[in-house]
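Obj: model holo form, ligand = P-hydroxybenzoic acid.
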Amino acid sequence: MRTQVAIIGSGPAGLLLGRLLELACVQSVILESRSRDYVLGRIRAGVLESGTVELLERAGVAKRLHEEALVHDSCGIAFAGGQLSIDLKGLTGKSVTVYGQTEVTHDLMNARAASGAPSVYEAEDVALHDFGGTSARVSYRHQGVAHEVACDFIAGCDGFHGVSRRSIPASALKIFERVYPFGWLGLLSDVPPPWHELIYANSDRGFALASLRSPTRVRCYVQCSLEDRVENWSDEQFWDEFRRRIGDEMAARVPNAPSIEKSIAPLRSFVAEPLRFGRLFLAGDAAHIVPPTGAKGLNLAASDVLYLYESLRSFYREKSERGLDEYSPRCLKRIWRAERFSWWMTSQLHRFPDDAFGRRMQETELEYLFESRAAQQSMAENYVGLPFEPMGGS
Ligand code: APR
Ligand code: PHB
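Output (holo structure tokens):
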């Protein structure tokens, strides 16, 4: 088989890239190691920046989003018995859109299925070849049969644990990483949210987040130990702990609602530089990870994909390699800004072991945030999403 762009991974990054390329008449094949149902069963964050929403509109996959998503003009911070509502709209003119990543993936998958563009699910032993030169290939096995795709480019959209980044010689990549000494225990429940905005809480017992997916579904988190197991937490224990952390104003309204999903995720900051090796381009979680505080993961994947799409389109339309050459530095500027913001939110809101000085810094930082419009504006500007970099660096 031959195609123009072989896309590894059918998460939001791979699917959005495939969709934008399709609209620009560039062919692609998506190779995904998991099944469609498995990909759609993953519960991830659900806050979209306005730039991400515009990109989904441009990709023609925002109809259901506009019917079902919730637009939030503010977000909350709970700390030391007080609750601050950050007026995102008033401070930046922008809002955020609450729509689960699973739903974004669903809409993109449906659009690809409807167009007939090829995707191979449950592709085994995906391997990348000869992408240092101009004759890149990807091999894989499907239902016991060996296949190979020859292509102009490979887009590595296969997440943090994928094969793409690992196929680049280690000497060609510089890795920047911070692993945090805690995780998030998340619970999904079908109950109307008693809060009208997302609330991020710093409490003496650790971080908590009150989020939601729809007018009838909540998603909540508590900071937990990395050794913790989901089986150790009954729903009742989760809600008891959540109430102790979320602040008195909210605690009384939190019901003991049964979970429909519970999982523990570790927190990590990670960047691999550069995002290009020859004809292989990394995008999304394959190149970088942010801790979920601030909900930047999917939004950052979307900006990588926009830049890669624009670079490939200019290659095919104008025979120009300039966009491809600029791809990695262009991505990295926005990636590092989102890394900074996610690290900052994580640092200010979680309980770190044995760090009395750090605790005082958090108290001081959050008091300042509660009192200063300038500090709130800085947070709001990052939370709603920094602008995309134009191609050409101007
Ligand atoms: N071959 C083919 N596919 C693979 C391989 C492989 N060797 N390894 C992983 N994959 C697939 C995964 O099964 C997954 O479906 O690649 C896909 C990567 O998708 P995501 O992990 O969702 O990553 P990405 O599309 O970059 O989306 C970024 O995901 O982690 C969240 O918060 C993050 O919201 C952000 C978003
Ligand atoms: C979520 O709804 O899962 C969510 C929301 C905001 C975050 C992280 C996760 O910062």
